[in-house]
# Entry
Amino acid sequence: MSGTAGGRRAVDDAGSATVLAAAAVGVLVCLLGLGLQVGAATLARHRAESAADLAALAGAREAVRGADVACERSREIAAGNGARLVDCAVEGWTVRVITAARCACLPSVSGEATGRARAGPVALGGPPSGPSVVTRGDREVNGPGRAEGGPG
# Structure
């Protein structure tokens, strides 16, 4: 009696490779989905950081016109880069912003990525925000309404 063990017929394992292949394909699809979610989250983080960088630079450019103007310009630039402005602070001529970008992940894994940036002049030998010094012709202005006389 060939193919028997102890008088009983051997278990037929035909088709077990199909089950294993189907399981392997399922695992690969899950790994692909996970990889796509990680990629989408990374893309959202990069978008938020880029929007924060550009918004801070644009806000710093407008800081001489006031905090409201600087933060409004930062908001416009962040929106133009696919993010929203969460926070904006103007300290002297330095603008700090926080932006958030939506992740294009699955609805069950939704969230926002944030980016932070600071831009402004660097005072030599002082803190990064430095004193608010603007030159106007022959006078130097040290903050609002405090002018020192120049030569002449």
